[in-house]
Design goal:
5 helices, 5-stranded mixed β-sheet, two-stranded parallel ribbon, alpha/beta, Rossmann fold, 24% strand
Length: 185
Amino acid sequence: MGYAIAEKLAEQCAQVTLISGPVNISMNRSNIEIIKVESAEEMYKASLDCFPYLNGAVMTAAVADFSPSKPEKIKTKRGKEKWMLELQPTKDIAAQLGKIKKSNQLLVGFALETNDELENARKKLQKKNFDFIVLNSLNDAGAGFGVDTNKITILDKDNNLQSFELKSKTEVAADIVEKIISYSA
């Protein structure tokens, strides 16, 4: 969704900074700057470095909620019957941006949920200081990962709810950008 939203914003003549992890998507537009990162820590740093100079941010997906506590420096060979992996929470980029957000900045979040979708999205909206949140559910056929379609509901800080039918991700991106424009007007 991040690349589709960046493309739709660029079509509206916005200057876009896209912070992206490793993907097999290419984009060549003069008004989109792509900052490539490899790790959750790199994404955190890049996001915090850029955000103060931007009109807003759209947080399309968490890079990772957890990372290994002790990353291995070399390949781990077979031999042990069981391998225990200890994880630690990554830094919450969206929450940190919500803390430093200025009144003239827009912050949009995403919530991918499997249960209590609206309740969890409302909590996330408030906790992270989003202006609105885009909710999608893994329970909806044709939505989520590995497909070119999505079905979303947009919930804003005034508790307005707008649900959309299943659409192509390009059409979903257009709906989200339309909402961004309505906030900026």
